[in-house]
Design goal:
Elements lengths: L6 E8 L7 H17 L4 E3 L20 H15 L2 E12 L2 E12 L3 E6 L21 E5 L4 E8 L6 H9 L4 E6 L6 H15 L2 E6 L1 E4 L2 E4 L3 E3 L5 E4 L5 E8 L1 H9 L20 H13 L4 E6 L6 H11 L4 E7 L1 H8 L8 H9 L6 E5 L5 H7 L3 E5 L10 H6 L3 E5 L7 H13 L8
Parallel strand pairs: 1-2, 2-3, 7-8, 8-9, 15-16, 15-18, 16-17, 18-19
Antiparallel strand pairs: 1-14, 3-4, 4-5, 6-7, 9-12, 10-11, 12-13
Amino acid sequence: MKQTASTLKLGIFQFTPRRGDIHANWKKVESAANEAAGAGVELLLLPELWATGPIGKTDTDLIHEIPGLLSRLKALAQADKILIAGTLPEFVGKVTGERIFNTAYVIGPDNTFYAYRKIHLFAPMEEDQVFSPGLDPVSFWLSFRHAEVGIGLITCFDLRFPELTRYLVCQGVNLILVSALWPLSRRHPFELLMESRAIENQCFLAGANAWGRVGDTKFAGGSAIIGPQGEILAEACDGETTMVAELDLDEIDSVRQDFFTAHPPRRWWPRACSKILDLSSLIDIVHRRRMAGQKMVFTNGCFDLLHAGHVSYLESARHLGDYLVIGLNSDRSVSGLKGPGRPITPEAMRAQVLAGLAAVDYVVIFDDPTPLHLIKALVPDILVKGADWAEKDIVGAEVVKEAGGHVARIPFAYDISTTQILKKSLLKGNCSHPPGQR
């Protein structure tokens, strides 16, 4: 019996969204989805912000129409038995404040629903003035007629950050979907980057871009479906058009048998010991990274017994800039602050454990009671402490602010501390146990 090939029929609808006219844009997408489904397309990809066009600060009222639009999109996908992907503004209201995300949705029959919030916002078009950045890459697996496909989502400016696509492919994804509002003035980079991401990751990549003038910007079109060797499987001409290509997913295995490049970092992955530096060496590194336009986040502490509260705090700190430096109290410093019997773990081991965390870029040990000397020497762009500290009490806050940086106070995600852990351990140690069960 002949085995069915692992194939997926993929379509892209390239069009000119009318800015702020959700009804007109919906009618175009509804028609395109019906046409694509009739041609056997299983997944239809749309441009970024296809229903609204680019959004400015004065356009945020449109966001309240999105929940109803999502309901119609679900009904359309169910009726046509097709998956539809593209980004829409997402409003999130929480106790901590209201936020808007540029969110890519994949919606299909039988309640198929996935969402990815755009991570890299494009400041030159003031996207960061309207949207909040997402934090988490998104990958998922869907069963189509002839194949199970691993899909990763990225949006427009994300295309310029190869580590995001590589991360998705390392999870097992074999198709990257890109929704874009990419201007005509930078069309060549758009085409080049799409091919590069497909070639370096040996995967399929589909990019749907808007075409034509929307407001003051002319968009490039250039939508394409690209194979794992960089071959163009389908490419849109200028104008509004629907393009279709059939992806032979077995091609990925064939390409990777010749040579394999789409694996996570191996031998060059930074070892923990390489992150532990003296102050003089760290000052040189900070200078070079600052010259490269990167922002440094700094925090400090004893980190005697590393726990979930520490890890959550450090991950949140790392999100605030490009790299995280930890000032680690030396054994003598900890003893002076905490008293005899502390630290529990020697400074060399504490530094090694911290440096082994993905969120941590550098560790520097200091001997003073406070990190003021370190802060004056490094001048962080962002100084971080726990939310239990008042800003006026944070050592080095004035140094950072006078240099144009800012201070961030991060709430604790866990009600835990080293002192609490030690008290619980002592209580357990003092409990009596039946013979043979101590």
